Structures are given as C-alpha cells and as structure tokens.
Amino acid sequence: MIKYILLTPLLFVVSFVSAQTEVQPCSAHKHLRELLKEESFRKQYDKDQAQLKLEELGHQQNKAGTIYTVPVVFHVLHNGGSENISNEQILDGLRILNRDFRKQNPDVSNVVSNFQSLAADIEVEFVLATNAPNGECFNGITRTRSPRTEDTGSDIYDGFDQVDAVVAGNDVYQGYWDPSKYLNIFICKSIGGAAGYTNYPSNFYAGSMYGNGIFSLSNYIGSIGTSSGYTSRTLTHEVGHWINLPHTWGSTNEPALQTNCGSDDGISDTPNTIGVQSCNLSESTCGTLANVENYMDYSYCSKMFTTGQKSRMRTALNSSIAGRNNLWKASNLNEVGASGALTLCKADFSTENNLVCSGVSVPFTDNSLHNPTSWSWSFPGGVPSTSTSQNPSVVYSSPGEYSVSLMVRGSGDSISVTKNQYITVLNETGIAPIQEDFENLIIIPSDKWFINSFNQNETWELTNAASSKSVRIDNSNKTLGSIDELISTTTTLDLNLSASISFDYAFAEKQDDNSDKLKLYVSKDCGQTWVLKKSLSSSSLKTAPNTSSFFIPNISQWKTATVSSNSLSSFLESDFRIKFVFENGGGNNVYIDNINIDGPVSISENNLIRKVKLYPNPAKEQINVNFYNKKRVKQFVIKTYDVVGKELGVVYDAELPEGDQVFKVNIANYKPGVYFISVGNNAESKQYKFIKE
Ligand SMILES: [Zn+2]
Questions:
Q1: Rg of the chain over all Cα atoms, to the nearest angstrom
Q2: Which residues of the chain have pLDDT under 50?
Q3: Cα separations (Å) of 86 from 91, 142, 226, 342, 693?
C-alpha cells in the first residue's frame, strides 16, 4: 500500500520517494491471479472461500464482542544494510497496526461523511510472541543475515527463498515457526517490486510459513527510522489481506482499469470502484462515491476499515481454514508467550565488532530479556573491568582474547551469562608488502586471518586440492544465501607510497542462474568501518565451466583480481585490514590464493602470469618459483633482488611458452634475510617476497 506519494504536493515527500518509484503498493492480487491459473490451487481456494462465506452468515460473534489477540513474530532478513531496521522501528510498526485495527487513529475523525458511520473497530490486537518454537525466550524479532533479503527479479516474486534463509539462519530458535501459532512477518530489502504482499487464508497453504506469511519492505514498517508516516500503513493493509480482505476493487483486478466497476470485493458496504490511484475524495466513476480512505485501497489517505470488512476478518479468524482460529486461543497465547506479564528469562549481550585494535572503545549492548532492572558486567583485561551500566563501553590495551560476563537482575531473580574469548584484540600489525600464499600452513593461522560464518558451519578452510595450497569454501551443501567472511589482521601501509591488492580466485557455477558473489572490502580503522573495493559475480566470478560435481580448479582455471593503487590512496594507514565476503548464490566451490597487499612494490595488471607460488618460503638452499604463463613471451625474465632493490642474479632470460612453469633458484649463498624475485618481461613484471633462513 504505497500512498502514491508522487501525487502529493509536499516537496519533501517527492524527494523522499524518488528512490522508490519502482515500488508497487501491494502485489497480493497479482499473486492470487497467478495462483488461480493452477487448478489444484483454484479448487481449494474456491472451496475455502465458499466455506468462509457460509461461516460468516452463521456466526454472530464474527461481528463484534470478543477481542482477539494475535501473536506476531517479525523476521528481519538483512545483509548488514539499512534494511536491518531497529527494534524501535518494528515496535512503531506494531503500534500503528494496533492503532488502526482498534480504530484509535486520530485521522479517522476526518473520514468523509458518507463513510463516517461505517468506520469500524475491528477488535483485533497484535502482540509480540516471546517464546520461540524451541521454548527459548526471545523478543519477538529474529534477525538473519543473508543476501536473499534482496530480490530484484520478476514482478511476481515468491518468497520461498527468503523463508528458507530465515529458517536456516534461526537455528538458535529452531527453524519452523508454525503459522497457526505465529503470524510470521518477513521484513526484506526487496520483494519483487512490491511494498508488501501476502496470501488469503486457504488450506492449500496449511502449515506453510511462506503461504501464511506477510512480506514487507523494510522501509514500509512503522513511521520512524527508514520509513515515514506515508508508508506506515502497509502492514495494516497486508494484515487485512491475511485475514481475507480483498482490495476494494476486487481480488484479481488491476487498479485504474476503466472496466473495473463490475468487479466486487464481496463486501456489501465497500462500493465498487475502478481502483483509485490518488486520494480523490469525490471519486465516483462507478456511480457511487468510492471509499478511497479504506485501508484496502491504494490511496495515501487510507484511515478506516468498514463494518462489513470487520465481519469478514473476524470470520476468517474464527475459521479453522489455514489454522487462523488457533492463533488467538488462550492455550496458544500461553505457549508462544503472548499473554501475561513478562519476567526475566535470559541474560544476553552483543557488540558490533569483536575483532578490535588496542585502544579502541568497544560498545556493548544488553540484550537481556525481559525487563532487567540491574546489570553487573565483568570485563577481564578491559578498562573499566566492571560496570553496572546497561550498555557500557570498554577499552582493551593489550593483544589477546578476552571473556565477558554479565549478570542481570529483574523482579528478584538473577541470571548470568559468560562468553569466553568473546573479544579479540589484534596483534602487532604487519608491514606491507604482505604476501599470503597459504603454502607452509597446516591450518589457517588464527592470528592472521579471522573467519566469520553466518548461517552454516562449512566455511573457509585450507586445502591443497588445487595443485598448491589455497583457501576454499566447500559449497556442496551450503544453504542458499549463506555468508562467509575471511578477514585479515592489520597491516601498515607506507604513507609515502602507493599500495595495491591482488588475489587469485577460482569458482564455477552449478548452473547459469546461480547468483554467488565474492566481495573485497578494505578498512583503515581496524575494521570499525569497511569500504567495498571489488565485487565479482556471474561472468567476472566464473573461472571454469558450470559443473555439478565437486569443483577443483586446474591451474588454468584461476583468475587474478586487482584493486589499483589509485582507489586505495585514502587507505594508507597503519590500521589497514582487508575482508573477503562470499555470498552463496547456489554455485559450486570458491577458492582464493596468493593474496598480495603491496606497499612499495609496484605492479600493473597481471596480464602475463597467474598463480605464482614461491616454496618453500622461508627457504634455505633452493626456492621454487611456480606459475602459470598465460601466453608465449619472447623475452621472459626472472631475477632476484635484495631488500633495497639491488639486483643479485638472473634466473631466466629467454622465450617462454604458455603453460605451467617451475624454476628452481639456488639461494645457498644468500645471507639470511628478506629478498625479492621479479617475474615477467621488460614491460610488465611483478615482485614477490621470500625469506632466506
Ligand atoms: Zn494489497
């Protein structure tokens, strides 16, 4: 229910909406139209609608009397952006939903006189659930990190992928949220071009989180944060659909079609309408004044449900169809924690960044539930080492791993939690050039590379499957949309010199519609903020043909990616870090190797060679230089240099054919120390660091 804000005369609203001009108000009717093409759905849907019609005629309580309480869970699906809306914004959305359903919205007094007497208090309320399916207490909001928050695909999008991502990501609370126990509201960044959609109740979707869920854009929830008053009533509209209200112009028709006057919504007190696209209060194209202020219109001035809509919604809530009548039963409200006073049930805390440099202030957030009244923190190794604030900040001065404890009190009880090795203060920084080829490693060294895995256990691992050692994610069983990060410790980049980053990677899709992404971020403040510098997807990420069998690249199935010195000039700082982020899009395994953070060594785009390996490194007698030569080079040169750039010897100077190459360099006479080996031709060469023991 966008409000057709472009038509409003207010200038600031026009600018607000400019980024959203593509968004359709609601696509519920389009989803239904698509579904009805399928006979199995149509049969069940027609049967359910006929049944609901009978039930509406038969039951007086559908009209008024009891207040029904519906337990709600908001599932925020995000990828670290502004779509990860705050708890406050979600609570504001819930407040507006309740306000509108209980006719407590002040603007209802402005409804045009013809409809004043029809504006109804639906006598339905919505309360956050506080018990998860596994019985664990929570705050009624789940948060799952996944690129599936975004769907820019077809106009008619189904949210199965988004539900799957939420289910896979919420293992803490157990994945399946029974839709006859919870109203599941999925908050996403994009949902196929609409602001919201849902399905009418039908046994076709019995038990399905997707079929009984509501999908909403994150910036159409509430009136604060990323939303606004104009976009705040999408949820009121969608919940109307969810309990069986069509649009006022009927279920299956587009708004604004001149032929629409014959299409009825089946509710006697909402006049037929062509489908209004503005707040024209005297709209009467179909012969009678249209109820453009109805929540089930697309106008930006909606402010009421009618008495007839009330009866229809309450009928659906009293019906066993799709299990709607279980939601508000006392036994269910008890089970999901949506009745009675909330007592202290959990001690918990978090911080945004638990990999920090020394001297950086680390803010902690109390996430304890419910209603804690006092806090007792313990920060061994930190300053301060204890605190009684709810949300304290702490500074650590020495590298290492630190535990954090919190004890909370509320209404007499106390609960404690300790998170061991929760904060890592990074070690002394390395100095560029940094060259990581993973060659002499048995495990990924935890003081140099940090791994964050969202959603799933399989993550970056060391492997020697691909002719030499590299890091890999085994994607054979990964959940679509899972995210894995590989984050470096800090590096000092010389302020007087340019810097660049390069790395080798290999990846294959399983099929053409895979949507995997490999991204490289850099930070100059030790990881407090990150800037995207490289994003590889589809053809730029693929290095080999599609395969459904376990992908292991051969030496010609690698590519090199480079971040140029120009784009890094503002990052020349001592607290420089890099972060690889792989977003699973259904593809095969991904590999990374030969990560170079270059300081003084200048390189151009590596057109000649790839997969350069120096081993062993450090070396005593002999060092092997292995690389893949991309094309025949007439004069290929390999030389060694000392640390100040003095040439020490010529290893090779001749024509070199395409293919895998190994050169053995005798360094027995070198003194222990740092050396470089230069590989390439006169126009283009690259230097690699090695250490003589
Ligand atoms: Zn709608």
A1: 31
A2: 1-21, 599-605
A3: 9, 12, 9, 21, 54
Name all domains of the chain by residue range, CATH numbers in brackets.
5-41+67-329 (3.40.390.10), 349-425 (2.60.40.10), 428-603 (2.60.120.200), 607-693 (2.60.40.10)
Ligand 1 centre and the CA of 648: distance in Å? 75
* pLDDT tens string 588-636: 999 999 898 874 333 333 567 776 777 787 889 999 888 878 778 888 8
Query: Which distant-in-sequence residues (6+ apart) come within 8 Å of 540 by Cβ?
Result: none
Residue count of the chain, please give it: 693
Q: Verify cis geometry, omega within 30 degrees of 0, for the bond prior to 363.
A: no
Using the structure block, give the residue that is written with the tokens 């057109």. Answer: 607
Q: How far is the CA of 24 from the centre of ligand 1 (A)?
A: 10
State in Å: Cα 237 to ligand 1 middle.
6
Residues 6+ positions from 274 with CB-CB distance below 8 Å: 249, 255, 256, 257, 258, 260, 261, 285, 286, 290
Report whether 211 contacts 41 (CB < 8 A): no
Cα 238 from Cα 223, distance rounded (Å): 16
Please give the pLDDT value at position 5: 31
| Ligand 1 geometric centre to CA of 26 (Å) | 4
Cα 497 to chain centroid distance, Å, stands at 37
Answer whether 490's CB lies under 8 Å from 430's CB. yes
Residue 280 alpha carbon to ligand 1 centre in Å: 19
Spacing, Cα 292 to ligand 1 middle (Å)? 14
Exposure of 503 by Cβ count < 10 A (0-12 exposed, 13-18 middle, 19+ buried)?
buried
- Residue 354, sorted as left (phi over 0), alpha (psi -120 to 50) or beta, turns out to be alpha
**What per-residue confidence (pLDDT) applies to 573?**
67
- What tokens does 494 get? 């010389």
What is the sign, positive or negative, of the torsion defined by CA atoms of 42, 48, 52, 55?
positive
Is 690 within 8 Å of 675 (Cβ atoms)? Answer: yes
What is the pTM (predicted TM-score) of this model? 0.78
- Helix or strand or coil: residue 628? strand
Positions marked catalytic: 238
CA dihedral 71, 73, 74, 79 (to 10 degrees): 180
Residue 109 neighbours by CB distance under 10 Å: 9
Cross-strand bridge partners of residue 615: 624
Spatial separation of the C-alpha atoms in residues 369 and 126, rounded to whole Å: 20
